[in-house]
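> tool_call: predict_assembly(chains=two)
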Amino acid sequence: MLIKINALNVQYGGKKVLQNLDLCLNKREIVTIVGPNGSGKTTLFKAIIGTAPISSGKVKLKPNLKIGYVPQQLNIDGSLPLTVSRFLQIAQSNDEKSLKEALEMAGIEDILKAQISKLSGGQMQRVLLARAIINQPDVLLLDEATRGLDQPGAAAFYRLIENIRKDTGCAVLMISHDLHVVMAASDRVICLNGHICCEGAPQTVATSPQYKALFGTDVDGAFALYQHSHNHNRQSEKV
Amino acid sequence: MVRATLAAIGVTLAAAPLGCFVVWRRMAYFGEATAHAALLGVALSLVFETSVFGGALLVSLLMASLVTLNQGRSLFLDTLLGAAGHMSLAAGLVIVSFTSGIRIDLMAYLIGDILAVSRMDLLLIWLGAGIILLLIIWRWSPLLLVTLNEDLASASGLNPKKEGMILTLALATVVAVGIKVVGVLLIIAMLIIPAASARSLVTTPEGMGVVAAVIGVSSAILGLNSAYIFDTPTGPSIVCVASIFFIVSLLAGYFLDQKNKV
């Protein structure tokens, strides 16, 4: 087991963002987290990389777990000159061989000299992914890595993720909004809304009443509104 | 004159690479407030007859740490910064006016008085500048990653808060050593103008740091010499030369862009 989270509670100010959350991630597993805005998806990632204010519970990582993190975006200011190849090597090993492999896998050998601020959305995501896999991580964390990509672009990106898992054997934990695309590629889907509403194989989750309550009855989930018809025990928030 | 030149080179050499981070992280206003606060430190150390350098360092460090700690908690950070910076500046000016014992040339602290740099000052300046340069070079890559994305840095095992504190410390030190050379009103100019001038000429962050340092040091030397020739105040003359570099580089960048488009 790579990551094991036990009864995790996270609060920002007085606001409970994650409540009593249990989660585990096994080797070679692809797990997708879906959930409405403000459901604590990114906070969960922050808890794993150790930057969330944990009020109780435990996040246990396998000793020396190598994490490859793909953030939603970079704060690239126009004032910062940065080529792709330099970015890939900031504060990590510059081993030629692993660099070359990562570039090949992500398919970005041809834009090494380009300025990061001039990349298209799809190129940017591949660059971020390449950086994440250079150090042969045990687990990849992807935070809405397909934001800003169109559907074929997103589908291609997920195929890439699957290939990377096949080649390197790393586990993948990802947050996504492209529900119908992403589900097919996942071993397990977790539906999050402050707590875990439901989880399981993609098919099971897609047909579960909790999932439908969160994302509407459109099982494709291409566009879904969150209606708060599903309100377990979140009243405590208002007190 | 030799001492003055050496002092100016020391400050600009340290300020330029640090200035790159100030520009990338959009901390110009933060630096401005810290520098203004330093005058309060100067005033207090005149009252208590302690080292001006120490007083300025202490107060600017205090100001910078307070702001760094509060980052993200307040929605109107720029207003707070403006208020705190100018409050300290005003309080410093008022306090200085009370110290009637010795007549103090206030302008010396506002725009610098490099020709009055003593051997001891020079030693302090180079000590401070050396520490800043070493810090920035040593933490260059981590700082760069934190600037790009804090979560990405955390996932690589870095501590964004710690790296931020290093920048804060360096900034306060540069303000303290810069007071003698260009004064509290102009020290931020020596941070951001060389860095901004370097931007259009380079393609990597390291390149920007080096070119900024070259521009900074050239401005210091050329500025001092022109101040000598035209009998103008030294600090403003250095900043004026840096500004010419900046304008030329902006124009050069613009024309290069146009050429690339055709």
